[in-house]
Design goal:
Helix content: 55-70%
Strand order of the largest sheet: 1-2
Radius of gyration: 22 Å
Order of helices and strands: HHHHEEHHH
Largest sheet: 2 strands, antiparallel
Structural class: mainly alpha
Number of helices: 7
Strand content: 5-15%
Shape: extended
Length: 189
């Protein structure tokens, strides 16, 4: 629409086929129709995957346990389970944080700090846990994770560092729940 200088209604941009009538050139019309078909197919596939993931969650106790963590949705739970596979392979939560790219490793020699480096591991897990932390922070009802964030901020910790700390707590809870299959407990976070 922008390329041909047409205004469109906000919110119905890609769902109102009647807007295609505004195009004068046949090539613009063809491209517009093609985009509508592609978006329709994409939305249908997204719906099918979500239904499939919900079936998986009903069968798999460990994945269902992940959805009890604040900020972890069906899709995020399946993403975590697919990336982690067997949580027993991580000795502790710190190794899991490293695998999830939630920490940086310090470079030291002779007691002197020379900087830090990022570990190249699973960026998709970092995205999941940081997204879950963002979701927790946006919720109206305060959870133990939100209270933890608020405590950090009241101590003067920057927003990004506090959010990453919440993401680490969510990652730790995910690892624990995948090992035990229990539901999330607010008191243990």
């Amino acid at each position: 629409y922008r390329s041909v200088g047409l205004k469109s209604k906000t919110g119905t941009f890609y769902s109102d086929l009647s807007q295609l009538e505004k195009f004068e050139k046949p090539t613009d019309l063809q491209v517009g129709q093609s985009i509508f078909v592609q978006l329709s197919c994409l939305e249908n596939e997204k719906k099918n995957y979500k239904e499939y993931f919900e079936k998986i969650i009903k069968k798999e106790k460990k994945i269902k346990a992940l959805t009890t963590i604040p900020g972890i949705s069906t899709i995020r739970a399946c993403t975590i389970a697919a990336a982690v596979c067997s949580p027993e392979r991580f000795e502790n939560k710190y190794k899991f944080w490293s695998y999830s790219m939630l920490i940086r490793h310090k470079i030291q020699s002779g007691g002197k700090m020379y900087g830090s480096k990022k570990v190249r591991a699973r960026a998709d897990l970092k995205d999941v846990f940081m997204g879950a932390a963002e979701t927790v922070l946006k919720h109206v009802e305060p959870t133990s994770l939100r209270k933890y964030y608020d405590r950090l901020r009241s101590k003067g910790v920057e927003h990004q560092k506090a959010k990453k700390s919440v993401a680490r707590k969510i990652a730790s809870a995910s690892l624990r729940l995948m090992r035990t299959g229990e539901k999330f407990n607010e008191n243990l976070s």
